[in-house]
C-alpha cells in the first residue's frame, strides 16, 4: 500500500495551523475584554468617592459629583420601561397567540426585528421630529420616549420566543376547563413563560442604561438636579460624552466614574437575566 | 344528590346565568385580542413613523441639493453648503474594515467554542465573549479615546507608517501622521464590538449541524479542519451570513464608540490612519449645534440615508435564515 507521506503531512500541518488560528481568535476576543475592563476598573475606581452620589455635576475646576445624571438616568429608564414593557408584552403575545401565521403578524415580526437592530441615533431623530419640535424644547419625556422605542422591540422579541416555547397541551388543558382565551393567556401561558419574559425586560434595561445617542437631542443635558419631566434632564451617558471630550482632568475623572457605574449596572442586569435563564432551564 | 330537585325555573336561571357568563367571557376575549392587536400595530406604527418623520425632516435638504447630496463632499456650515459623501464614505469604509476583521475572528471563536475548547471552559469563555456585546458603546468610546488610541498611536501606527513609507499604494494607505484617532482606529473598535454577534450566531448554527454528518466525515479520515471547512461551514452558510449581516447592521449604525475616536473631519483622505467621520458621528456631534434649518435638515437627510442602508442590510440578514429553514424543509 502506498501512502503519500507528503499529502498526509500537508493535511496535518493545515490542521495544526487551523488549531493555532482558532485559539488565537478566542485569545484576541478575551484580550480586548481584559484590556477594556482593566482600564475601566483602574480609572473608574480611582475616581469613585461618596461625593459622586451627593453632588451634581460641577463647572470646570470645582469638585462635584454625578447625582443629577444618576437620578436622570434612573428616572428616564424607569419611565421607558414602564411605558414600553406593556406594549412589548402585548405585541409579543399577539404574535405568539393570536396573529401567528397571519400576514399582519409576519409584517410586524419583520419590522420589529429591523427596529431591534436599527441605529439608535435614528430613533433619537424620530423622537426629535415628533416630540421635541412640536413641544418646542428638549425634555425628559422625549428622552424617555426615545428609550421606550428601544425597549419595545427587545420585549416583543423575547416575549414571543418565550410564549412559543410554552407547550400547547397546557393551553388546551386550560381551555378544556372552560377558561376563556384571555384568561388562558394571562393565568397560564404568561405564568409559564414568566422567567423568560422578565429576562427580556432585564435585557432591555441593560440595553438602555448605556444608550447615549438618542438622548443627545431629546433629553439633552442639565447641569443641575431636576425632577421636571418637561425640562431637559441630565443622564449618565450624556454627561460622560460631554465630560470625556472636555479639556479638564477632573471632568475626565468624573466621566470614568460614570462609565464604571454604567458598566457595573449593565453587567449586574445581564448577570441577573442570565441567572433567571439558567433557573428556567 | 337525589333530594335536590331542580325546578324548571332554577334550570332556566342557571341557563341564562351561564349564557351571561359566556357572553362576558367572549367580550373580555375580544377586548384582550384587540388590546394585543393594538400593541402589535404600535410596533408597525413606530416603524412607519420613523420613515415618515425622517422623510419630512429631510425635505428642505432634498429640495436644496437633491440626489447630488450623496456624492458632494463639501460640508460648510458657515456658507450653508452640505454634501453627504465624507460621512457616507466613512460609514461604509469603517464598517467594511470592521467586518474584514470581525468575520474571520468571530468564526474562529465559534469554532474554538464548539470543537476545540475543553468542555468545562466552554461556558465561561462563551459568557466572557458575550460580555463584549453587553458593554455599552459609550464605554468603548471613552476607552478608545483615552486608552486605546494613545497606545495604538505609539506602538502600532508609528511602526507601520515607518515600515510602509515609500511603498506605492500601501504607503499611501497607511501614510500621514500617527494621530491615534481616525478611520482605522474606529474600524478596529467596531470590529471588537460586533465580534460577539458573529460568534454567538455562528456558534448557534454550528450546533444545528447534525452530529451524524460530522461523524461520517471523521469516519472518512478527515482532519478537524477539513470537517469544519468542507462540511460544517457549508452546512451553516446561510446562518453565518445572516449573523454577519446582523453585525454589519450594528456596525453601520454604531454611534458613540465611533464619535469618540474617528476625529470628526469631513474629508476623504487616502490614508486609513487619517481622521474622518461617519453618518452617525456627524449627527451626534453637530445636531444640537445646527444653527440653520438647512443644516438640521441635512443632518436628518443623513439619518434617512443611514436608516435606508441599515434597513437593506438587516432585511437581508432576516431573509438569510429564512432561506436556511426552507432548505432544511422544516417549520
Mean pLDDT of chain B: 89
Number of strands of chain B: 2
What oligomeric arrangement do these chains adopt?
heterodimer
Judged by helices, strands and strand pairing, the structural class of chain B is mainly alpha
Strand order, biggest sheet of chain B? Answer: 1-2
What is the N-to-C succession of helices and strands of chain B? HEEHHHHHHHHHHH
Content of β-strand of chain B:
under 5%
How many individual helices of chain B? 12
Tell me the series of helices and strands of chain A, N- to C-terminal. Answer: HHHHHHHHHHH
Largest sheet of chain A: none
Distance between the termini of chain B: 52 Å
Q: What Rg of chain A is obtained from the alpha carbons, in whole angstroms? A: 24 Å
User: What number is the mean pLDDT of chain A?
Assistant: 91
Instruction: Tell me, briefly, the overall form of chain A.
Output: flat
Radius of gyration of chain B: 28 Å
The shape of chain B, in one word, is flat
Unreliably modeled segments of chain A: none
Structural class of chain A: mainly alpha
Q: Please give the share of residues in helix of chain B.
A: over 70%
Low-confidence stretches of chain B: none
General description of the model:
The complex is a heterodimer of chains A (281) and B (331). Chain A has 281 residues and is an all-alpha fold. Helix content of chain A is 77%, strand content 0%. The longest helix of chain A is centred in the first third of the chain and has 43 residues, at 5-47. In chain A, 49% of the residues are buried. By secondary structure, chain B is an all-alpha fold. Chain B contains 12 helices and 2 strands. In chain B, strands 1-2 form a two-stranded antiparallel ribbon. The longest helix of chain B has 58 residues, at 8-65. The model of chain B has no long low-confidence stretch (mean pLDDT 89).
Amino acid at each position: 500500500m502506498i501512502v503519500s507521506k507528503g499529502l498526509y503531512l500537508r493535511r496535518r500541518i493545515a490542521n495544526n495551523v487551523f488549531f493555532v488560528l482558532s485559539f488565537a481568535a478566542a485569545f484576541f476576543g478575551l484580550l480586548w475584554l481584559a484590556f477594556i475592563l482593566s482600564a475601566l476598573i483602574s480609572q473608574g475606581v480611582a475616581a469613585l468617592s461618596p461625593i459622586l452620589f451627593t453632588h451634581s455635576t460641577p463647572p470646570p475646576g470645582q469638585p462635584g459629583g454625578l447625582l443629577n445624571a444618576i437620578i436622570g438616568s434612573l428616572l428616564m429608564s424607569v419611565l421607558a420601561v414602564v411605558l414600553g414593557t406593556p406594549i412589548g408584552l402585548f405585541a409579543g403575545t399577539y404574535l405568539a397567540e393570536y396573529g401567528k401565521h397571519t400576514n399582519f403578524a409576519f409584517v410586524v415580526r419583520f419590522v420589529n426585528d429591523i427596529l431591534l437592530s436599527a441605529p439608535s441615533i435614528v430613533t433619537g431623530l424620530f423622537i426629535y421630529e415628533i416630540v421635541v419640535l412640536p413641544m418646542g424644547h428638549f425634555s425628559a419625556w422625549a428622552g424617555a420616549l426615545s428609550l421606550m422605542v428601544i425597549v419595545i422591540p427587545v420585549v416583543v422579541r423575547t416575549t414571543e420566543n418565550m410564549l412559543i416555547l410554552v407547550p400547547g397541551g397546557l393551553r388546551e388543558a386550560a381551555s378544556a376547563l372552560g377558561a376563556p382565551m384571555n384568561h388562558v393567556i394571562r393565568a397560564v401561558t404568561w405564568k409559564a413563560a414568566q422567567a423568560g419574559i422578565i429576562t427580556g425586560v432585564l435585557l432591555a434595561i441593560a440595553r438602555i442604561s448605556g444608550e447615549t445617542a438618542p438622548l443627545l437631542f431629546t433629553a439633552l443635558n442639565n447641569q443641575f438636579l431636576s425632577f421636571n419631566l418637561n425640562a431637559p434632564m441630565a443622564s449618565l451617558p450624556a454627561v460622560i460624552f460631554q465630560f470625556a471630550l472636555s479639556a479638564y482632568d477632573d471632568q475626565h475623572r468624573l466621566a470614568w466614574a460614570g462609565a464604571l457605574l454604567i458598566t457595573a449596572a449593565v453587567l449586574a442586569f445581564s448577570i441577573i437575566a442570565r441567572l433567571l435563564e439558567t433557573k428556567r432551564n | 344528590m337525589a333530594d335536590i330537585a331542580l325546578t324548571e325555573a332554577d334550570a332556566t336561571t342557571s341557563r341564562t346565568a351561564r349564557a351571561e357568563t359566556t357572553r362576558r367571557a367572549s367580550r373580555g376575549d375580544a377586548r384582550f385580542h384587540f388590546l394585543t392587536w393594538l400593541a402589535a400595530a404600535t410596533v408597525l406604527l413606530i416603524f412607519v413613523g420613523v420613515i415618515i418623520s425622517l422623510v419630512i425632516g429631510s425635505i428642505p435638504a432634498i429640495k436644496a441639493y437633491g440626489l447630488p447630496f450623496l456624492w458632494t463632499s463639501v460640508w460648510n456650515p458657515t456658507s450653508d453648503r452640505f454634501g453627504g459623501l465624507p460621512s457616507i464614505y466613512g460609514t461604509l469604509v469603517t464598517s467594511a474594515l470592521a467586518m474584514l476583521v470581525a468575520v474571520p475572528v468571530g468564526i474562529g471563536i465559534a469554532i474554538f467554542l464548539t470543537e476545540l475548547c475543553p468542555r468545562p471552559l466552554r461556558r465561561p469563555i462563551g459568557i466572557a465573549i458575550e460580555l463584549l456585546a453587553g458593554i455599552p458603546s459609550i464605554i468603548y468610546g471613552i476607552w478608545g479615546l483615552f486608552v486605546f488610541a494613545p497606545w495604538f498611536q505609539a506602538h502600532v501606527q508609528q511602526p507601520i507608517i515607518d515600515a510602509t513609507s515609500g511603498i506605492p499604494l500601501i504607503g499611501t494607505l497607511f501614510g500621514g501622521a500617527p494621530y491615534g484617532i481616525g478611520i482605522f482606529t474606529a474600524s478596529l473598535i467596531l470590529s471588537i464590538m460586533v465580534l460577539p454577534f458573529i460568534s454567538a450566531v455562528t456558534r448557534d448554527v454550528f450546533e444545528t449541524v447534525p452530529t451524524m454528518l460530522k461523524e461520517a466525515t471523521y469516519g472518512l479520515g478527515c482532519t478537524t479542519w477539513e470537517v469544519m471547512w468542507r462540511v460544517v461551514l457549508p452546512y451553516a452558510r446561510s446562518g453565518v451570513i445572516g449573523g454577519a449581516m446582523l453585525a454589519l447592521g450594528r456596525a453601520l449604525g454604531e454611534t458613540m464608540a465611533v464619535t469618540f475616536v474617528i476625529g470628526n473631519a469631513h474629508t476623504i483622505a487616502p490614508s486609513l490612519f487619517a481622521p474622518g467621520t461617519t453618518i452617525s458621528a456627524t449627527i451626534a456631534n453637530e445636531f444640537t449645534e445646527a444653527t440653520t434649518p438647512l443644516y438640521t435638515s441635512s443632518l436628518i437627510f443623513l439619518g434617512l440615508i443611514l436608516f435606508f442602508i441599515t434597513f437593506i442590510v438587516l432585511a437581508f440578514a432576516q431573509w438569510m435564515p429564512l432561506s436556511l429553514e426552507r432548505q432544511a424543509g422544516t417549520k
